[in-house]
Amino acid sequence: MTRAATERSIKINVRNFSFYYGDFQALDSLTLGIGQNEITALIGPSGCGKSTFLRSLNRMNDTIPGARAVGDVLLDGKNIYDPEVDVTELRQRVGMVFQRPNPFPQSIYDNVAFGPRVLGTARRSDLGDLVRQSLIDASLWDDVKHRLHGSALNLNPGQQQRLCIARAIAVKPDVILMDEPCSALDPVATLRVEDLMRELAEHFTIVIVTHNMQQAARVSDQTGFFWLGRLVEFDETERLFSAPREALTEAYITGRRG
Amino acid sequence: MKRQQTQKLAIAVITGAAALVVIPIVLVILYIVVQGIGALSWEFLTARPRNGMTEGGIMPAILGTLILTLGTAIVCLPLAIGAAIYLAEYAKDNRLTRWVRLAIVNLAGIPSIVYGLFGLGAFVLFLQFGTSILAGSLTLGIMTLPVVISTAEEAILSVPQEFRLVSQSLGATRWQTIRHQVLPHAMPGIITGIILGLSRAAGETAPILFTVAAFYLPSLPSSVSDQTMALPYHLYVITTQVPGMPLSVQYGTALVLLLLVLSLTLVATVIRTRMRRRRDW
Asked: Which of A162, A221, B210, B239 has its Cα between 20 and 30 A from that of B178?
């Protein structure tokens, strides 16, 4: 345990967690603690299991035939893989932003309102305020306040991705998972989303998968380095990038492996 | 140079083939319009037949076809949409699913006269519905199932998988995802399939021959256990069974049937274009 770990409040406690696709073991006995209101970055080469791990935190892997989890993922102390856990409730608490901006082909308003409407979590009279607040929190309000009922597909990719973030936070999750959220964006849009992540971390716990090591270094508090389904190293971002403990980590972040 | 000439020849041939497709439909429509337009009048559309059906109008047959189309929709749509959602969203590759798919393929291949005989045996005689709107609607409804199921399933499958993932990641259940995300996006395709299926049912003669259609009725149907006159059957009767029937009445009836079916197709096209314009991906 690192020094910081004792002071941190752990939101998601992962213990001896392994994940299989049929016979293939994608994750091998992971143990780590994801801190509340922190940004945790997951880095590593393609196919190392970081996306699988991200998707196992809201059980989006469940839909894949043959997928199987072993071990514990404790969200606020409760194992999300317990048989009695309602997956839809879990996903309300652990939201997700995908790699490609993927707004529904509907209006901006309807995109943000979709979750609360379907789940019935907002009264009709409160829906407008909730949409507005979600768009403000996703720092998109000023861009779209005059065209809420225009198509979401007319926004540029950066705006679309912030709309997807607004759509995710409209259901009031505790945790937001982001799967390479900037990989389809230009550098300016990327910086805006990164700034946004820092703001969101005040209210949410964020886990982000990224291929971009500068991005991990810029935005995250903690970083985990994955290699072939194992978590090689997990530490404060600053320390992991300045003084990695493992030779493999150092080789990867300096560009000699991966 | 040789390859370029071959290419030109090939393009000419396939363009010609495509153009030839247009000619028969244009000729059929033109011919019927020219021959039948003279018979069309307000009386023809709103009055009952008189004088051995050689005079008066065909209102009971028009009304009957509209009633049968509605009946077909009531029988067919719940089953077809339900089956399409099951096949597209829930079906695993198991024995039940394979049987369902096999059944749909075979339903589509059954000649319409066989549907008519089946309706006679199953609904008219065995279930003792008699020759009635109920029996006819059930027969037409079953005949329409495969068209609507196939087009609806296709429309549902064409909704990008990503929308389902996003919806579920927001905490929606499978059903909420289907109800609020998938079906709205699939609706233009589903509606197109429904209307095309119904327009085919409206024009069929064989399935209603033994199950509902009447040669001539003095009064309009008052319940689903009554018989009714219907346009396609009426047309069949007056062209083959009634000596001395004026040609203009025959073609006038054909024209009304054609307009009815074409207008259904037109409605389908308009709905599809309008909804496509609204939602796009």
From this structure: A162
Q: Given pLDDT bands bounded at 50, 70 and 90, which one contains residue A6?
A: low
Whole-angstrom distance, CA of residue A45 vs CA of residue A225? 9
User: Hunting for tokens 């244009």 — which residue is that?
Assistant: B26
CA gap B119, B133 in Å, rounded: 12
| Rounded average pLDDT over A58-87 | 92
CA A230 to chain centre: 19
Half-sphere exposure of residue B229: CA atoms within 13 angstroms, side-chain side: 23
Stated length of chain A: 258
Any chain B CB within 8 A of the CB of A153? yes
Q: Does B185 touch chain A (CB under 8 A)?
A: yes
- Whether residue B171 lies within 8 A of chain A, CB to CB, comes out as yes
Non-local CB neighbours of A52 within 8 Å, separated by 6+ positions: A19, A26, A27, A61
Q: Which structure tokens are listed for A67?
A: 């997928």
Q: For A66-93, give the DSSP string.
A: TEEEEEEEEETTEETTSTT--HHHHHHH
pLDDT attached to residue A258: 55
Test B172 with A58 for CB contact under 8 angstroms: no
Rounded-to-integer distance, Cα B249 and Cα B36, Å: 7
Q: Is B53 left (phi over 0), alpha (psi -120 to 50) or beta?
A: left
What domains lie within chain B, and their CATH numbers? Answer: 59-278 (1.10.3720.10)
Digit-coded pLDDT (tens) for B185-211:
999 889 989 998 999 999 999 999 999
Residue B49, pLDDT above cutoff 90: no
Q: Are strands A10-21 and A222-227 parallel, antiparallel or unpaired?
A: unpaired
B163/A102 Cβ within 8 A: yes
Token pair of A133 as six digits: 């607040």
Cβ contact B281–A119 (<8 Å): no
- Radius of gyration over every alpha carbon of chain B, rounded to an integer in angstroms: 23
pLDDT tens digits, one per residue of B240-262:
888 888 888 899 999 999 999 99
- The fold for domain A3-253 equals Rossmann fold (3.40.50)
Number of A–B residue contacts, CB under 8 Å:
64
pLDDT digits (tens, 9 = 90+) for A129-164: 999 999 999 999 999 999 999 999 999 999 999 999
Are B171 and A63 in contact (CB < 8 Å)? no
Q: What is the pLDDT of residues A172-193, one digit of tens each?
A: 999 999 999 999 899 999 999 9
CB A13 within 8 A of CB A1: no
Sequence-distant (6+) residues with CB within 8 A of B253 are B36, B39, B58, B61, B231, B234, B235, B238
Residue B213 in contact with residue B230, Cβ under 8 Å?
Answer: yes
What one-letter code names the amino acid at A165? Answer: I
ipTM over 0.95: no
- Closest residue in chain B to residue A60, using alpha carbons only: B169
Give mean pLDDT, residues A81-109. Answer: 94
Which residue's entry shows tokens 């314009």?
A: B277
The CB density around residue A92, as the number of other CB atoms within 10 Å, is: 21
